[in-house]
Amino acid sequence: MNMYEAIFVRKSTRAFTDELLEERTLAQFRHFLGQLEPYKNIKTEFKIISCLEGEGQGKKLRPRGGVKAPYYLLLSSELKADYLLNAGFLLEQAVLYLTAREIGTCYQGSAVFPKELLGELAYEYVMAVAFGRAKNEVYRDPDSRRRLPEKELIVWKEEPDENLRRVMEAAIAAPSAYNAQPWRFVAYENRVHLFCRKGPVFRNVLSDTRLLDMGVVMANISTAAEEKWMDITYTRSDTVSGMPFKKNEYITTAVFRDKVF
């Protein structure tokens, strides 16, 4: 299974075994993390912690709240413009990598890690992902996903080709905090404008997570575009950004081109 295929079968794992992952598996994961291309040029750091090793010391690193897992991937970041989009973009790629290797994952939005651990991070803590071997099935039936229908999420302004349809199917399949699915899209033949829903439902606790969610959906779009041999560039449209929207906030525009060798 590759990362594109993992998009459609991935589910949140909330029950893990205490099985150690092979050191080779962890080393390959670290290498993958080191090669990730960010959405924006913002300094970040990934930190993998194990709660299984070290004479009980590992258990002291376990967070309050969230799920009990053998491993956690923590992301810290510079607090620059679009750092939440960038964080979601990076973390979703990490999640898809693990999913493709039959390793369970669960985003940890409510987990509170010990202060001494957070003090070791290079930048400000943003989000964590619990991961490890799942006690139960790590994959789901794609038809069991609870997602809004396409007609509520995408406005097609032009007839897309088959590849762009597959890319947008991957976008709709993205996970989100509380399954809020804040994304909305206006799609043309070779570009898609991305919007994020506004309104009371996204006040307070969801005001930040919705931007992380938008980074997640952008990672799915980029992963699917790569699978379909399409180059993708994210850019801001001055025309769209200058338009008033009551219910949505304009985020970015994805521009697609067929790969040329």
Task: Tell me about this structure.
Strand 6 (183-187) and strand 7 form a beta hairpin. The two termini are 26 Å apart. Helices cover 32% and strands 23% of the residues. The chain has a 5-stranded mixed beta sheet with strand order 5-6-7-9-8. A 4-stranded antiparallel beta sheet has the order 1-2-4-3, covered by helices on one side. It contains 8 helices and 9 strands. The protein has 261 residues and is of the alpha+beta class.
Summarize the topology.
Layout: H1 3-9, H2 23-35, E1 44-50, E2 71-77, H3 83-100, E3 104-107, H4 115-118, E4 124-132, H5 150-153, E5 154-156, H6 162-172, E6 183-187, E7 191-197, H7 205-227, E8 230-235, H8 238-241, E9 248-258
Parallel strand pairs: 5-6
Antiparallel strand pairs: 1-2, 2-4, 3-4, 6-7, 7-9, 8-9
Helical fraction:
25-40%
CA(first)-CA(last) distance: 26 Å
Strand order of the largest sheet: 5-6-7-9-8
How many β strands by DSSP?
9
pLDDT < 50 stretches: none
What class do helices, strands and sheet pairing give?
Answer: alpha+beta
- Described by the principal axes of the CA atoms, the overall outline is globular
Count of helical segments? 8
Indicate the multimeric state: single chain
The radius of gyration over CA amounts to 18 Å
Main beta-sheet annotation:
5 strands, mixed
Please, what is the average pLDDT?
A: 92
Which strand-content bin applies to the residues?
Answer: 15-25%
SSE pattern:
HHEEHEHEHEHEEHEHE
Features:
five-stranded mixed beta sheet, 9 strands, 8 helices, four-stranded antiparallel beta sheet, globular, alpha+beta, 261 residues, 32% helix, 23% strand
